[in-house]
Design a protein that fits this description.
Layout (H helix, E strand, L loop, with lengths): L19 H4 L20 H25 L1 H4 L4 H19 L61
Length: 157
């Protein structure tokens, strides 16, 4: 699956040498918008950067595989692609199964007699809203861990 060594039999594409971006005409460009919000003071930047790096790595692997597997999908019609997706999803579900969510949030309050912690221990709120001390101040702009837009060079120039 390494583009340095792969050569397509059907399309003739492949064996991308160092500097191929400067010498080849682009065939396809893929943009992905990934938004990460982790608004916890002291950890926000690191966690958001880590998630962006992991997502980028996963997408790079996927694009490399799509390039290396071009002979398998190059001649497919859209109906064949949809059937392949359906069969793959069915095989994956059969192999790993379908799992219900492990965590659920409920607004039902429990009587204090059913709690296992002592009454002096703080209780975990059953709300998705962050506590006031963790919320981002409204008068301060948020840090950006990734650029808003990405400008690519014009291939015609």
């Amino acid at each position: 699956q390494d583009p340095k060594y792969f050569k397509s039999q059907k399309t003739g594409r492949g064996q991308l040498k160092e500097g191929w971006r400067e010498t080849h005409q682009p065939i396809m460009c893929s943009y992905k918008l990934v938004t990460v919000k982790f608004e916890v003071w002291g950890l926000q930047t690191r966690v958001e950067q880590f998630v962006h790096k992991v997502v980028r790595d996963i997408l790079l692997i996927g694009h490399r595989q799509a390039f290396a597997w071009v002979d398998e999908w190059y001649d497919m019609t859209m109906d064949e692609v949809r059937e392949f997706e359906r069969a793959t999803q069915e095989a994956t579900n059969k192999k790993i199964g379908i799992f219900p969510p492990a965590i659920s949030i409920s607004n039902i309050s429990m009587p204090s007699s059913t709690r296992s912690a002592p009454s002096s221990a703080p209780s975990t709120p059953l709300s998705t809203d962050a506590p006031e001390f963790l919320t981002v101040p409204k008068d301060r702009p948020r840090k950006k861990s990734a650029p808003e837009t990405l400008t690519l060079p014009d291939p015609a120039k």
